[in-house]
Amino acid sequence: MNENLRNLKPYPMVELARRKASVAARGIEVLDFGTGDPVEPTDPAIRAALAAAVPEISQYPSIAGLPELRAAFAAWFQRRFDVELDPEREILPTRGSKEAMFHLPLVLVDPSENKRTVVYPDPGYPVMSIGSMYAEADLHPVELTAENDYRMDPAALPREVLASARIVWLNYPHNPTGQDLPEALWQAWVEAQREHGFVLCSDECYTEIYTDARPRSVLEFAREGCLAFHSLSKRSGMTAYRSGMLAGDPEIIARYRACRAAMGQAQTEWVQKASIVAWRDERHVEERRAIFARKRAILSEGFARLGLEVYPTTSTFYLWVSVPAGETDESYAAKLLDAGIVVSPGSMFGAANAGFFRVALVPTPEQCEQALDRWAALE
């Protein structure tokens, strides 16, 4: 086994699935606020497009995907961020953002070079560090806590780390805390990229789930040396479709595209056809935002009544909640589990976050009310 992976912790979603199964095995109805996989139905027009596109003969998709898919994404990106992208040179479809984020260090990191560090947020999306381990990069986690508002700031990192960095990952809106990055820090990271020459990678899969100000994209601030990762999983409720997009610096896109044949292809053509419909439509996205806002309000108000403190959030469908006095994140999660409520202990996202637990706004509004009744019975 690869020595770098021998001590790798279990993937958080695998552990949550195990916990959920243990509750169901006891005959208890599970209210799953652990895994961030929403249950709202995928829009009928998207499903119809997929069904209509399934061919009699199935063949490999191309690397670049359908031109109309890249054009649909480019048109959406301009509407949403007022940034014009070249569909031929600056966009590449991926099977969700996860596999692209995993593969990228294999393309960009040469472990024999001095410039082989990957900087990433902790907590953050685990694949950022896991893919870097496979690429034999030097890892530099940036500890994010309530003390620094879960915001990565280049000024807080040693200059030698930035100088040795090949990749710096940003994850805003932030999973698991729902925080966003202010414009001044976006600008600071772009300036740091220009000074030190690393590739600035931005995981932007939650930009469309927000309650107030619309989250930004790194490509609003710079193109050279920058990549943005987008996905229809959260925006359009298409997690199982595995439909993502990589956009940004055309030279880096070209380098990654040249390696794609050894790693995979674009989505299947029927998924691409469904994705075209999704990128062209905002109505279903607005409806999903409204549902998440309703669930957020129900739980936030209920937690306030129960004396549970919710960290202020602006985006994503997560609530980051302080563990009650006298409990640890694990003991409290176990207590909730006995009542059939699954949450994610904060330490699952890094030891520094043991004072919190994450609540994913996945169950229905009615189930959120039901969960609050169970919560109240525990107090």
Largest sheet: 7 strands, mixed
CATH topology of the largest domain: Aspartate Aminotransferase, domain 2
Structural class: alpha/beta
Please identify, by name, the CATH architecture of the largest domain.
Answer: 3-Layer(aba) Sandwich
Overall tally of domains = 2
DSSP helix count?
A: 13
Q: What percent of residues adopt helix (DSSP H or I)?
A: 40-55%
Q: Topology of this structure?
A:
Elements: H1 12-24, E1 31-32, H2 44-53, H3 67-81, E2 91-94, H4 96-108, E3 117-122, H5 127-134, E4 138-143, H6 159-164, E5 165-171, H7 183-196, E6 199-203, E7 226-231, H8 232-236, E8 244-248, H9 250-260, H10 269-280, H11 283-306, E9 318-322, H12 329-338, E10 341-342, E11 344-345, E12 356-360, H13 365-378
Parallel strand pairs: 1-10, 3-4, 3-5, 5-6, 6-7
Antiparallel strand pairs: 2-8, 7-8, 9-12, 11-12
Helix pairs in contact: 2-10, 3-10, 4-5, 11-13
How would you concisely characterize the structure shown here?
The chain has helices spanning about 10-25, 45-55, 65-80, 95-110, 125-135, 160-165, 185-195, 230-235, 250-260, 270-280, 285-305, 330-340, 365-379; strands at about 30, 90-95, 115-120, 140-145, 165-170, 200-205, 225-230, 245-250, 320, 340, 345, 355-360. It is α/β, with parallel strands linked by helices and about 375 residues long. Helix 3 packs parallel to helix 10 (about 270-280).
Notable traits:
Aspartate Aminotransferase, domain 1; single chain; 2 domains; alpha/beta; 13 helices; 3-stranded antiparallel β-sheet; Aspartate Aminotransferase, domain 2; 379 residues; 7-stranded mixed β-sheet
